[in-house]
Design a protein that fits this description.
It is a single chain. The chain is mainly beta. The protein has a single domain, classed as Cupredoxins -  blue copper proteins (Immunoglobulin-like, Sandwich), CATH 2.60.40.420. The protein has one helix spanning about 15-25, and strands at about 30-40, 45, 50, 55-65, 70, 75-80, 90-95, 100-105, 115-120. The longest helix has 11 residues, at about 15-25. Mean pLDDT is about 85; it is low at about 1-25. The protein binds copper (II) ion.
């Protein structure tokens, strides 16, 4: 069950949220937290990513329409997402706890500026 998308719907209610928190306790079998993301005018789906500090995060992202970008400035993470729909994989370690804004880094039209997401890195209990 590695391809479960724990944070798929932005309309998630309380029940779904409780379920998500359970999922959050299990990283993938290889210790990597993987998310499959679709970029589409003008949103990322899912758009919110929650990981634990110290985890390796793998984002596999593809576009459903035009060229997009996926960037987290504070973490020096940036990639282009081609319009062909070819998935792009990026991987980084969430060394710092906090909330980091995700932005589309390629101009993709009128709503480009609103094409954002959020990476939430929860602190490890022992690290504070
Ligand atoms: Cu854009």
């Amino acid at each position: 069950m590695l391809s479960v998308r724990p944070f798929s719907m932005r309309t998630a209610g309380a029940a779904t949220l409780a379920c998500c928190l359970l999922v959050l306790t299990e990283a993938g079998a290889d210790g990597v937290r993987e998310f499959n993301v679709v970029a589409k005018k003008y949103e990322f789906t899912p758009s919110r990513f929650e990981v634990m500090q110290g985890e390796t995060v793998r984002i596999v992202i593809k576009s459903a329409d035009s060229k997009h970008g996926f960037g987290i400035k504070e973490l020096d993470v940036k990639t282009e997402v081609p319009k062909t729909g070819e998935p792009v994989t990026l991987e980084f370690v969430a060394t710092e706890a906090g909330e980091f804004e995700i932005k589309c880094t390629k101009y993709c039209g009128k709503g480009h500026k609103t094409m954002t997401g959020l990476l939430v890195v929860r602190p490890n209990a022992g690290s504070q």
